[in-house]
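User: Hi! I'm working on a homework problem where we have to compare a predicted structure to a textbook description. Could you give me the structure for the chain below?
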Amino acid sequence: MSHAPHLFVARLARAVAVLGLVAYVAGSLYALATGNVGMFQRFGSLGVAAAILFFTDRLLQIELNRQKAVEKLLHEYGLRFEALSAGIPPDDLPERGYSADFLDEEAEFNTLRARAARINAGSIVLLTVATLQWGFGEVFLQGISA
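Assistant: Happy to help. Predicted structure tokens:
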């Protein structure tokens, strides 16, 4: 199974989150410098979404990496416990069998991680579109009708 489409979507979602944050800061500074009250207000709505997107993405990445590290540690200690229970010295763990179980478990957790990343990417897209509609919808509709 190829991870290329998932990797592309994840990178795109992160880029959108970072670009949203940069657009918020730059647009707010520009609107403040020019005294454009309406634009400043609109960039406030973009700032809300940018903050949610940017920090949600970062927190999710931290949590997923933490889970992966904990799973690896738990598996290692589980193997040692099974070996001790069977009377096998922990240093003489069989290379096959346990590693197959680990690979099955890891594949299942990778599926869960991929699903969480897709949900996060969808959230970023939805929040971006909804916030742009909220903040710039009037400008967009006036541009279409003009």
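For your comparison, note the following. Residues 4-145 form one domain. The mean pLDDT is 76. Good luck with the assignment!
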